[in-house]
Write a structure and sequence with these properties.
This is CHAD domain-containing protein. Pfam families: CHAD. With 312 residues, this protein is an all-alpha fold. The chain is 77% helix and 0% strand. It has 2 domains: 148 residues, CHAD domain (Alpha solenoid), CATH 1.40.20.10; 126 residues. α9 crosses α10. The chain is globular, with a radius of gyration of 21 Å.
């Protein structure tokens, strides 16, 4: 198993049964908007959209095998999130079982990449607390050690998962399935329908969160996840949708920033509470948690206001 502080399973391949070919993926640039617009079939657009995201994930994984760049771990996690959204979009043709297996594996790999990123966020927040006068150096030292261990664990898991072969296999499997069932289906109506469904989910979750007083953390988290999915789909399908989607993406990004700031605080508080710090005095831990609790309340209010505005 992965470090108990991070809660990620070591055996990343146990649920995946697709073959692992040795063919190496070429790192491709993201296709131009006109390329997607000129590709009319559902099957063809999947390849155009998935290939550059997979290439980005492969590139990040290769780089992280040699160095522990915080941004690299973040970009790897984002790539897997985008793939989850893309597989959800094409799930009517990929099938529920294939989609569920792929999405679960993407989620696991994103969690592996996110372990280091989570400790980086904790460290940044505690640095801000120190600037405000808190005396947290013993905890900062412990967090740096946790981060170093997370790097080692993440790198080991990334290597053992053979991300490049795995991603090549899932791409090949999806391409084969889509070519067999929807190689001649037009993309525009399909894209609009999937974006509309994702938008409806976001609206429902936003209204549910807006009804609560005070807003529950779980409701804000659900809004954040739904917002990410919709934003990624708008980015993927923008070339075949109307011009207003650019404004939608900008508005969603603004709301997501507020929700992300709240999530960073909430996740960091949870991570500190669930971790063991044998060498850190109880008073230091308590001071850090008190500071985080105050910041969480402030950021939760800000996030809730944005969600209520969006739900109107």
């Amino acid at each position: 198993m992965f470090s108990s502080d991070l809660g990620v399973e070591m055996d990343l391949d146990s649920d995946w049964r697709l073959p692992r070919p040795n063919t190496r993926l070429k790192v491709l640039r993201r296709p131009a908007a006109s390329s997607l617009a000129e590709t009319e079939s559902v099957a063809g657009t999947f390849s155009l959209l998935a290939t550059p995201v997979i290439a980005e994930a492969v590139q990040s994984a290769r780089a992280l095998s040699a160095k522990s760049d915080a941004e690299g771990f973040h970009q790897l996690r984002v790539a897997f999130r985008k793939l989850r959204a893309l597989y959800w979009a094409y799930s009517p043709y990929l099938g529920a079982e294939v989609t569920a297996e792929a999405v679960e594996e993407f989620r696991r790999l994103a969690a592996v990449a996110g372990g280091t990123r989570d400790w980086d966020i904790v460290g940044d927040l505690l640095s801000a607390a120190q600037e405000s006068g808190a005396s947290l150096e013993p905890l900062m030292d412990a967090v740096r050690q946790k981060r170093a261990q997370a790097v080692a664990d993440s790198q080991a898991l990334i290597k053992s998962a053979d991300i490049e072969a795995f991603l090549h296999a899932v791409l090949l499997g999806a391409q084969t399935t889509l070519q067999s069932c929807c190689s001649d289906l037009p993309i525009r109506a399909f894209a609009k329908k999937r974006v509309r469904l994702a938008r409806r989910t976001l609206q429902k979750r936003s209204k549910r969160a807006a009804r609560g007083e005070p807003t529950h953390e779980e409701d804000l988290h659900d809004v954040r996840k739904a917002g990410k999915k919709l934003r990624y789909l708008l980015e993927f399908f923008q070339p075949v949708l109307n011009d207003s989607r650019g404004r939608d993406i900008k508005a969603l990004t603004s709301v997501q920033n507020k929700l992300g700031q709240f999530n960073d605080i909430a996740a960091s508080e949870s991570l500190i509470r669930s971790s063991t710090f044998n060498e850190v005095p109880a008073g230091v831990l308590q001071e850090s948690l008190q500071w985080l609790a105050k910041q969480k309340c402030r950021r939760m209010r800000a996030a809730s206001r944005r969600v209520r505005a969006m739900a109107r």
